[in-house]
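Technical appendix A lists one of the benchmark inputs used to test multi-chain prediction within the project. The record comprises two sequence entries:
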Amino acid sequence: MWSIEQIIGALNQWLQHTLGNVGAAIAAYILLGIFVILFFSVLGLVLVYMERKVSAWMQVRLGPNRVGPKGLLQTLADTLKLMSKEGLTPAGADRFLFNLAPVLMIVVSMLLLAPVAFARNVQIWDLNIGVLYVSAISSVSVLAVLIAGWSSNNKYSLLGAMRSGAQIVSYELSAGFAILTVAVLSGSLQVSQIIESQQTGWWIFRGHLPVWVATVVYLIAVTAETNRAPFDLAEAESELTAGFHTEYSGMKFALFFLAEYANVFIASAIGATLFLGGWMPLHIGNWEAFNRVMDWIPSSIWFLAKTFFLIFVIMWFRWTFPRLRIDQLLELEWKYLLPIGLVNLILATAIAVLGWHF
Amino acid sequence: MGPASLIVLIVSGVVFSTLAMWVARFLVRPAWNKQKGEPYECGVPTVGQTWIQYNVGYYLFALMFLIFEVELVFLFPWAVVASQMGFVALVEAIVFLFILFLGFLYAHRQGALKWM
């Protein structure tokens, strides 16, 4: 049976056969670059379409259904429209920083792809501090937001950027504590080892209460970190027009939009890796036949299914909860989520030390 | 694929975003007038400067964040060895987190977490 691992192996062998060792390495890097660029483009198109269809479904509407079959080409048409729009720079703006911000945003989300395990043994770079790397790099995106808000020379943008800075910075702590909970249980920060440790069962099944709490805290924190509703104060359209990207138009706006969706994907992918076992198939005890059937499903399908389930949950939040006010938002983090995260980490450590997890 | 893949990712990110903006520039014939360059403020001309000193109101949260972020960084190496070290790790973490929690309570008492 085919798998992505085998395809990559065969491709690598063929490259080494035709180009030699050095040539194959260079070709592999070029292919990697082409792959991530294509992946980002497709990801943007798919997630925007999914967002619109999910929100339509939640509101008993049809959603996009005119362009292409079932409206599948709608987002492509939107992208073409955005490309044909003029990218304005306001007269008073800091031109260099104004153009730097979208580039920085995209670079940060591309860097976050490195430790994501797409399938069995398919990872761009399996570094030994994978989850620490994720939480370190993802905090750089706040710089892009602040640069965008500051350089626009617009009061809405500046206020939106400041709010967003406070918000991303605060919720990063809770996300960190949720990540630490799993790191304590699995005893590693390396993404591949965290997945290996879930061979007998995903952490959400094996870790009792602390992992459930960590999963909920992680989902809340990640929703806030990616600036999505109900935490989209940075771009609250009813008070700040569009927040930090008020002045952006055309392709620069599209890049911000794309980076937001890419961040949602990566956050869900990391969440699926930590709590739902990444590409690990669902196994139940000693049900041999059931486990055999689950093994037969390719690991990439498992990974994508879990990731898209979490993305769906994050989209679901948007149509369930009303937007918070900025003081409520900071209160939720500092007075509830952070103390809960601290206590939860100690509980998880106790369970890991006593060996109470399954 | 090793550390070099990070350079590839950075380069492809820069190439992707600059290419997108560059292609868009060729598709559009820009038409400039003075009103287009004004900052957007719902049709009203903006009053005064934007780049001024003002009270952010979140700066205390940023200071608190610094403390807790450093704490998180200390906890990451601990998390790797916690289950091997057993009870020592648990007690050490409780002591460490308790001291930080006292600091957190102090900040809370002083009103650092109150909205101004």
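The mean pLDDT of chain A is 85. Chain A is about 70% helix and 0% strand. Comparable benchmark entries are summarised in Table A2.
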